[in-house]
What we know:
Helix content is 50%, strand content 11%. With 316 residues, the protein is an alpha/beta fold.
Amino acid sequence: xxxxxxxxxxxxxxxxxxxxxxxxxxxxxxxxxxxxxxxxxxxxxxxxxxxxxxxxxxxxxxxxxxxxxxxxxxxxxxxxxxxxxxxxxxxxxxxxxxxxxxxxxxxxxxxxxxxxxxxxxxxxxxxxxxxxxxxxxxxxxxxxxxxxxxxxxxxxxxxxxxxxxxxxxxxxxxxxxxxxxxxxxxxxxxxxxxxxxxxxxxxxxxxxxxxxxxxxxxxxxxxxxxxxxxxxxxxxxxxxxxxxxxxxxxxxxxxxxxxxxxxxxxxxxxxxxxxxxxxxxxxxxxxxxxxxxxxxxxxxxxxxxxxxxxxxxxxx
Length: 316
C-alpha cells in the first residue's frame, strides 16, 4: 500500500509540475557533451546479466560499492533495492551512502567527501538522480585539493540519470512564485531543504561546474542517459511537456543531454526516471553498468601505462 501511495504521489506531482512549468519560459538548449558512446556494450551486458552469463572483471570484489540515492530517496521504501540485491548476488560489497536525501548538495557532498578520505578500499560510486550531483560535486571539490587521493580512493563513478547540468523542471518550480510556494509546502510536509531543489536548477549547475569542473581524467566515469515518451509512464505528462515546449528528449525529470558528464563514457536507454529505483530490470541494468565501468577503468589504466612507457618521439 505504501508503494501504491508513493506511486500516486509521483503521478500527482508530475501533473502539478506540468501546470507550474507551463507558466515559465523556454529553457536554454545545451549541446550534447563530447563523449564515447558505449550503449551497445551496456545493452549486451544487460542481456548477459539476465541469462547469468555476465563475467565481472577479476578485480571486481576488491572494491566497495556505494549507492548514492536521489532526492527523497530515503522516503521511498525499496528504493534501489533490486540493484543492491543484484550486486550482492554477484559477490560485491554494497552499501548506501549515509546522506540525508532531503538535504542540499553541499551537505551531502561533504559526507561523500569524508567517505573518500576515510576509505579503507577503493570505492565505486553509483549515483542516481540528485545522487549524481552530490557525488560529482564531492569528487570535483576534493580533486582540486588532493587529486592523488581521489585517483587512489575512487575506482569509478556510475552516474545514472543525473541532472548534472540541471533540469528545466527544477528551474520553473524553484524560480516561479507559484512553483516555489508549492515546493515550500511539499518541503514542510516531507522535511526537505529547499536548497536541494535550487541545487538542480540549470543556473546553479552551470555556476558549480564552472567553479569545479568534473575530473574525468582522474575517475573513470560512465553516464546513463535515458529518455522515454509514453502515456503509460508515471512521468508521461512531464516527458511530453519537455519534448513539446523545450524540444528535449527526457526521462520525465532530466533531459538526456543534461545527464551526460563531460569526459565520461555514455550509455543510453529507453526508460523513465522511476524505472531505475523500481523498474523490472533495474538490477540487471545496474550490474551491467558497474561491470562496464570497471572495464573502462581497466582500459583507462592500460592506456596510461602505454602512454607512460612509450618511447619519446624522435627529433626532426
